[in-house]
Design brief:
This protein is of the alpha+beta class. Helix content is 32%, strand content 22%. It is built from ten helices and 19 strands. The chain is globular and about 65 Å long. The two termini are 38 Å apart.
Length: 348
């Protein structure tokens, strides 16, 4: 029997699943080791201190989190990445019921599911790589059935819990909105820090050395005593509060009435600027609509429609109701457009 080839994302998920809980330092070490081996096997020399590698590490962690494979918690006291328990999660798709496998996985997982499916007339288990969507994303394991009862029986056989209500619906309903989030911030009057500072530029949608003087301001400070750690404060006049970077960006955009969410209602595709990622639970709500990582497209593909915001991340198979609830909670308004981009990122 020919040995199955695993993608980088598959191997990363397997190692993390075996460890169950790791520190951020351990995650970086595992990522770097697998990445160096992959590059070496292709005859490519790399410099692990390259800033792009640091970006890839964190982006990969967010992708794993959005697909329901892990959770992570970064604070001043502890950095932890925890693999989630396996779940058969139904997708909010029309037609016959389909579900994806989230949580931890091992090399034998797919074979075990295929063997279990042999006892059912209509259960089909497929595994598809996601390299064309995100180069470090693990493969998607999709389970097809003719009824939700059959999915329930299959889940009982493999002893993995089944969620009949799609997690996407639960998440989009559970997530608070901007006003609720900001009401829980601890505001205080204080002078600005004398640490190295970058401000979020709402026109460029990125942090820059350009200092923002007026209106709501999101500043990112480099902690001089903790290498690589950054503190994010949102300022309103002389009052400030510590804030999650993702929520902070959308707070500034909402205060200025800047709309950045694009939706193709015919292809049910939602586009979000890569520089302004969603808060994590919203990312998971979108990714678990179809069990796929978002796909990146460059701005030149959409310039004719007046969309000129740099790289966009596209989420496919997003019901209009979920897209509208997301926009409402972030005080955005959907901007309707025609993406003409298929699941593999090709212009169609």
């Amino acid at each position: 029997m020919q040995q199955e080839e695993y993608s980088f994302g598959d191997k990363l998920l397997f190692v993390l699943s075996a460890k169950r809980k790791v520190s951020w330092a351990t995650f970086k070490s595992v990522f770097d080791s697998l990445f160096a081996n992959d590059m070496s096997s292709q005859g490519i020399e790399i410099e692990m201190s390259d800033k792009s590698i640091a970006y890839d590490r964190y982006e990969t962690l967010r992708i794993l989190d959005s697909l329901g494979h892990c959770d992570f918690h970064f604070s001043r006291d502890e950095d932890a990445v925890c693999i989630a328990p396996p779940i058969v999660a139904r997708l909010p798709l029309a037609g016959l019921p389909r579900a994806v496998l989230t949580g931890g996985q091992v090399p034998l997982t797919h074979e075990q599911l295929e063997n279990a499916a042999l006892g059912f007339e209509s259960i089909v288990v497929t595994k598809s790589p996601q390299k064309y969507r995100h180069k470090f994303s693990p493969s998607r394991t999709l389970i097809h059935a003719e009824s939700k009862e059959e999915l329930q029986m299959f889940s009982e056989l493999i002893e993995i819990p089944y969620l009949d209500i799609p997690p996407s619906w639960n998440l989009i309903n559970f997530c608070g909105d901007l006003d609720q989030y900001r009401s829980n911030l601890n505001w205080e009057e204080k002078g600005d820090l004398n640490w190295p500072r970058l401000d979020f530029d709402p026109d460029k949608l990125r942090f820059q050395n350009k200092l923002i003087q007026n209106g709501l301001r999101l500043s990112s400070y480099g902690d001089p005593k903790r290498n690589g750690k950054r503190l994010h404060l949102i300022w309103d006049g002389n009052k400030c509060a510590e804030i999650d970077r993702d929520w902070g960006r959308y707070s500034v955009l909402a205060s200025l009435g800047i709309k950045i969410l694009f939706y193709d209602k015919y292809r049910h595709t939602l586009g979000i600027p890569a520089n302004v990622p969603l808060p994590r639970l919203f990312m998971r709500a979108l990714a678990l609509c179809v069990g796929l990582a978002p796909i990146g497209i460059q701005e030149h593909a959409l310039k004719e429609q007046g969309i000129n915001l740099g790289e966009l991340h596209l989420y496919h198979a997003i019901p209009i109701q979920i897209a509208e609830m997301l926009a409402s909670k972030l005080q955005q308004t959907l901007q309707y457009c025609d993406f003409d981009v298929g699941l593999e990122g090709k212009i169609i």
